[in-house]
Amino acid sequence: MAITQTFNDVNDDARNGAYSTPAQPAELDASKVTITVAREFKPVPPASELVFGQVMTDHMMVVHYDPVNGWSAPEIKPYGPLSIDPASSCLQYATNVFEGMKAYAGPDGRPRLFRPDMNMKRMQISAARVALPPFDTAELLKLIHKLVALDARWIPTVKGHSLYIRPTIIGTRDSLGVAASDRATLYVILCPTGPFFRTGARPVNLLAVHDHVRAWPGGTGGYKLALNYAPTFKPQQHAAKLGYDQCLWLLGEKITEAGAMNFFVVVRRDDGDLDVITPPLDGTILPGITRASTLDLIRAHPSRTTLPGLSPETLLHAVERELTISQLAAWAEEGRLLEAFTVGTAVVVAAVGRIGHDGKDIVLPAHEGALGAVARALYERITDIQEGRFEWENWSVPCA
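== Branched-chain-amino-acid aminotransferase ==
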């Protein structure tokens, strides 16, 4: 009887408004941002001294999520450490997602971003893959615009240099229970950067690796998760000891990625045209923004644009299909393998000089200035678009 009375009392209180339905957790809202400008600004290193990822700018953006209140008011504040619980999900179970973007100084001096909507979409998909709290990517992009504008003095004006942008979301659920994180911290940091490979005009060399697998069907290779990267470090150290710059990741005979980049080859067809081939997005390969841009530009040549340095009579065919290391060796033997190159946000386009496999090297033809004709055309066109010197498909977005 006492228990029934208690339930009835609760129901009466609810009908009388003593209890109310909890409000919906707050959405990410860029209009609520508070900006605290650093009291002292750090010196900006000369472009010639920049090493990828080593020097951070003056400010960062941080916002937190909890399941009751939702997203907090974002903060743009001086760059500094984060404070998280030692039991946080990100430390225990690798619930970490990040993106790689860049800002460039346009001809008018305004900062510009390259296809940022694609980065936001990929970050949203990656966060969902590890069950992190959802967020409005349009609002995150507004915050990135504000942060880049505030630290615009850090954007190098030397060609091939840029301001690297690293949006990151980490799970901060403070429990060792094996479960999805219902708390998160979303933050953005910036660093000025020069060329990713400091090899000058020398092409990069790859070691084909089949005894360590970067990604597998049904796994997480198609998402930009931190957990994809750490297992690659040991094989990379081994490749470096053997004189190679990066690993070419194999799945059996199949080629997937090169280092943390997408991989392309240029093969002469029987009719004289050129196939520009890259492995398909089968779940083991990250859908790179530079990869998609490369394919789009190849398909546009020469019908909608002529890529720099290439004749309109040079017909390119964008091909997404399975590539094997045996095929590369056979094409090289036949003299049909004209170029191999890698693409990615950090590197843009980099030529491959040789590929080590089973104790032998597949040697690519040498080209003046390292890049072959197709790779150079793509590098020049993409960087011209990124820096606002060539308008194309609204890919270059000025910061508001």
